[in-house]
Amino acid sequence: MRDLQLSLNQTQRVRLEAALHELQSLAPAAAAAAAVTVADTIPVNDEDNILKGHGTSDQDGEVVATLCGVVERVNKLVYVRTLRARYKPEVGDIIVGRVIEIAPKRWRLEINFSQDAVLMLSSMSLPDGIQRRRTAVDELNMRSIFEENDVICAEVRGFQHDGSLHLQARSQKYGKLERGQLLIVPAYLVKRRKQHFHHLERYDVDLILGCNGFIWVGEHVVVGENTDKTEVKPALSTEVENFTPLETRKHICRLANAVRVLSALGFTLTVELIIETAEASVSSNVEINAMLGAEFYVHTAEAEAKRRADLLRKKSGAR
Amino acid sequence: MVGLSEGEKHFIRGGIAQDLRADGRRRLQFRSVSVETGVIPQANGSARVRLGATEVIASVKAELGKPSILHPDKGKVSIFVDCSPTAAPMFEGRGSEELSTELSVALQRCLLGGKSGAGAVIDLSSLIVVDGKVCWDLYIDGLVISSDGNLLDALASAIKVALSDTGIPKVNVSLSAATDEEPEVDVSDEEFVQFDTSSVPVIVTLTKVGKDYIVDATSEEESQMSSAVSVSVNRHGKICGLTKRGGAGLDPSVIFDMISVAKHVSQQFLSLLDSEIASAEAAE
């Protein structure tokens, strides 16, 4: 995701700095203590027995960080985890990926990981829905299920012994994503939650937050609809009637721009925050296009600072 | 460039047909433009223009040289474009040659006028120092740093701003030189001559997708184009250059329509650029 290039005038710059400063001060102190930059010393209790992991190095008997990030300790292992690292998959993660290659009995997907993920033909439910053994005919018809450059939603099934990532898309809610747009944000902004599929009824929009940082915003597709996979591509005239209705499209664009602004600001993406940002733009009568402008950027930063301050006050007030 | 699935392409085409593109713009709306001058201190003039995620740098260097024998009273200007591999992996090595040549030729046609220098945006006679012996050679270089569609428009506006930022040093010619010898020239370090860039045109590219045209296409939208017409218009509404890309044929009436739309859009873009140039000059 390319950062938004914004030219802020003087007042906007001042406001933005004030908002970011407030957010910084609201962050819990413990988190700040664990953050290190290059050449910071990492405090360790037992110098002799610890294992120095990634991002650390031994300098003059001290453990020194070689990366900027957060110090993690697991038993005797001390390492530095960077924030903007590539996505680190775990079993059960919901991810969104793009098909880059069709190989024998499998599809290869790009998911912003160090390797391409693999979706086996046997891990994909067939279009006719019957549970059966995949035959050679199925293998020849793989392209009718997913083609190159298709956007797919799947779940991480596990790692193979050689380190490659295997996915599965057996359930009806996984599969090809059409009629929408794909946004790419840094993977660390999407935290693991209970739900990653969000159907926003008010807007009739599907929002899928992939743990790998690929976010899909698109028209709502009814799960379980048996689409006829063998239909011929529609002619141009019928395609025109087939376009997404304008109202839904407006909502999709607003949500997509909300995601763009929030990722440019570096805020963790949650459904509530995205919806709130989109609603704020509607209530302030900001044009969809102007959501990517400097004024809304600063406004969103201030709104988030205020929201976190209120949350903190409520928490400390409730105690 | 990353490929797009059929569903995404359908979505983009639908957006253009309904006048609501992926980032909320209308069909004839530009992305936000940001302009910086003086980014290359060693050059006589330079500018960086950001059009959304597309980023280009233009620099103008002036060197003393000999005028051509055919036109002893005119200086020389040359324009070259280079695409940096930071913009896209395919630009590494010779991968960008085709695109760079295409962009350079299009810019040369719009800005440099005919073979004799007629119609060029910079008055070539103003570049002459000593008739037949010494003249200024202007080398205008464009560098594409980040490519997200609409490179031609970005480069043309960067060149316009860079020319407005350019200062050619004043030259004092010693009068005692004989007619055959090379005259002595003293290049001043203090005094500079600025160009008048009010007549430099700007390029507006109209990309045709389906039945409609859009201005300032992103690279995703450009992948859906059937054809694109780039029109170079100056402040007086005169057309200084015209390029058509893309394999699909266009009806002549469509071309006329596109030209009039481009004229209309370019006036807004020109005034936006002029105000940015003025604010950059004021900031210095």
Report on the structure:
Chain A has 319 residues and is α+β, with helices and mostly antiparallel strands. Chain A has two domains: 1-29 and 179-223 and 245-319, no CATH class; 85-177, Nucleic acid-binding proteins (OB fold (Dihydrolipoamide Acetyltransferase, E2P), Beta Barrel), CATH 2.40.50. Chain A is built from eight helices and 16 strands. Chain A has a five-stranded mixed β-barrel with strand order 7-8-9-11-10. In chain A, helix 1 (10-26) runs parallel beside helix 8 and helix 6 (246-265) packs across helix 7 (271-283). Chain A is flat, with a radius of gyration of 23 Å. Chain B is of the alpha+beta class and 284 residues long. Chain B has one domain (8-283): 2-Layer Sandwich (Ribosomal Protein S5, domain 2). Chain B contains five helices and twelve strands. Chain B has helices at residues 6-17, 97-112, 151-165, 219-222, 252-283, and strands spanning 33-37, 45-51, 54-65, 76-83, 128-130, 134-146, 167-173, 185-194, 202-209, 212-215, 227-233, 239-245. In chain B, the strands form three sheets. In chain B, strands 1, 2, 3, 4, 5 and 6 form a six-stranded mixed β-sheet that branches. Chain B has a four-stranded antiparallel β-sheet with strand order 10-9-11-12, sandwiched between helices. A two-stranded antiparallel ribbon of chain B has the order 7-8. In chain B, a hairpin with a 7-residue loop joins strand 1 (33-37) and strand 2 (45-51). The longest helix of chain B has 32 residues, at 252-283. The A-B interface holds A 2, 5-7, 98, 147-151, 176-182, 218, 236, 239-240, 242-244, 246, 249-250, 253-254, 256-257, 260, 287-293 and B 2-8, 10-11, 13-15, 17-18, 20-26, 29, 32, 34, 50, 52-53, 55, 146, 148, 210.
What is the fold's blueprint, element by element?
The complex is a heterodimer of chains A (319) and B (284).
Chain A (H helix, E strand, L loop, with lengths): L9 H17 L2 H6 E2 L14 E2 L3 E4 L2 E4 L3 E6 L2 E5 L12 E10 L2 E5 L6 E8 L11 H5 L1 H4 L5 E9 L5 E5 L5 E3 L2 E5 L12 E4 L4 E5 L4 E6 L16 H6 L4 H20 L5 H13 L10 H25 L1
Helix pairs in contact in A: 1-8, 6-7
Chain B lengths: L5 H12 L15 E5 L7 E7 L2 E12 L10 E8 L13 H16 L15 E3 L3 E13 L4 H15 L1 E7 L11 E10 L7 E8 L2 E4 L3 H4 L4 E7 L5 E7 L6 H32 L1
Parallel strand pairs in B: 4-6
Antiparallel strand pairs in B: 1-2, 2-3, 3-6, 5-6, 7-8, 9-10, 9-11, 11-12
